[in-house]
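User: tokens in, sequence out, please.
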């Protein structure tokens, strides 16, 4: 038995005025997805537990078979996981933005989209600066892409790591224009220490040669999104099958890595819109020859939702149907297989960001006749028979055949 889960990120929506009150999933021309829906089972699911904001990392952790309430520890650790940075249980991993701050405000959360090369030099310099100033400095900066980096702070104990993980930090993109002093982390000793590192980074960065040349200097770092490395039980040991992941999003690669899944990197992600989808589909077919389950995630509908671009959202869904769902399902025609298609969360055009509503779900079994579900969209799945269960049950539902 083969299994495939298609995840069109943010694809579900609210009725859109320019689509005469329909949604992008309703109007998109998707013959391959329609077939799965007509011959499969429909319903809703929800991938975001109540206590969490509907981020793609949380929502996809559910789809990957892990309850975020038990396993989610933050974005920083997932990024570290995607880059294969080794950590210990007392390490707290922060996201680290290079920012521009004038007059103690968050003026630019990405320092004018600083280049990867420039930022790498600054991160390396920060490590030298802090370790020469404090020989027993407990932190280390790891450079990433453009303004997105990591900072790992090694605590003295598991207890300290728990305290530091639980401190509320704020994403820099959410506090643009605000005073930094109004957005600090609190008074405990560890929080103070992290804040001091952020403000001391200025001593080094302000006068750096790179920043003298930059119109928008990266004159400070902002640390946030921290947590300890999640201890995800191995996927194969948990579910008894092997899994591959295809995604362009680092956070999701991180989840896959921690779960011991096979991460398939698809080249040409920077190519044309169409070739990117096509490549993903082709790599998906190959991955399914090697593993039992393929999780294939496509970011584009979410991006179109954030951009509030209806036309692009419809197009993205149609391309997923043509280049990913169609070819992969065709490649399985001589096999017993079960497929599911669902977004991680909605990204409605009218809202421009994620919401926590239930998402439509279709499950298809090549050996079963389906229910009354007509189509994979917010209305069509209502005729289906699937019970609404939290998203982290999906893998178990697929494997057991008890949908
Ligand atoms: Zn998402």
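Assistant: Sequence out:
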């Amino acid at each position: 038995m083969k299994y495939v889960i298609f995840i069109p990120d943010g694809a579900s929506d609210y009725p859109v005025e320019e689509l005469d009150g329909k949604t992008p999933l309703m109007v998109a021309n998707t013959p391959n997805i329609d077939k799965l829906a007509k011959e499969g089972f429909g319903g809703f699911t929800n991938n975001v537990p109540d206590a969490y904001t509907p981020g793609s990392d949380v929502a996809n952790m559910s789809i990957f078979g892990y309850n975020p309430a038990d396993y989610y520890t933050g974005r920083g650790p997932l990024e570290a996981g995607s880059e294969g940075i080794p950590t210990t249980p007392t390490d707290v991993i922060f996201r680290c933005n290079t920012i521009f701050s004038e007059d103690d405000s968050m003026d630019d959360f990405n320092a004018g989209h600083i280049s990867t090369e420039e930022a790498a030099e600054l991160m390396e310099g920060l490590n030298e600066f802090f370790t020469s100033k404090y020989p027993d400095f407990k932190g280390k900066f790891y450079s990433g892409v453009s303004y997105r980096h990591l900072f790992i702070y090694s605590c003295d104990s598991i207890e300290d790591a728990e305290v530091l993980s639980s401190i509320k930090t704020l994403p820099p993109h959410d506090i643009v224009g605000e005073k930094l002093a109004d957005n600090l982390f609190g008074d405990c000793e560890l929080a103070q220490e992290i804040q001091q590192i952020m403000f001391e980074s200025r001593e080094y960065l302000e006068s750096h040669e790179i920043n003298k040349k930059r119109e928008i200097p990266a004159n400070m770092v902002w640390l946030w999104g921290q947590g300890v490395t999640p201890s995800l039980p191995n996927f194969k040991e948990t579910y008894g099958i092997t899994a591959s992941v295809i995604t362009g999003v680092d956070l999701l690669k991180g989840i896959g890595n921690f779960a011991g899944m096979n991460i398939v990197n698809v080249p040409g992600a920077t190519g044309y819109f169409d070739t990117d989808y096509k490549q993903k589909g082709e790599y998906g077919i190959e991955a399914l020859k090697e593993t039992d389950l393929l999780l294939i995630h496509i970011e584009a509908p979410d991006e179109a939702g954030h951009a509030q671009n209806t036309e692009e959202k419809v197009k993205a869904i149609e391309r997923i149907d043509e280049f990913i769902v169609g070819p992969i399902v065709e490649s399985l025609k001589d096999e017993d297989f079960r497929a599911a298609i669902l977004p991680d969360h909605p990204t409605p055009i009218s809202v421009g960001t994620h919401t926590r509503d239930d998402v439509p779900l279709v499950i298809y079994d090549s050996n079963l006749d389906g229910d009354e579900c007509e189509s994979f969209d917010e209305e069509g799945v209502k005729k289906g028979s699937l019970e609404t269960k939290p998203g982290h049950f999906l893998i178990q539902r697929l494997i057991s055949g008890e949908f």
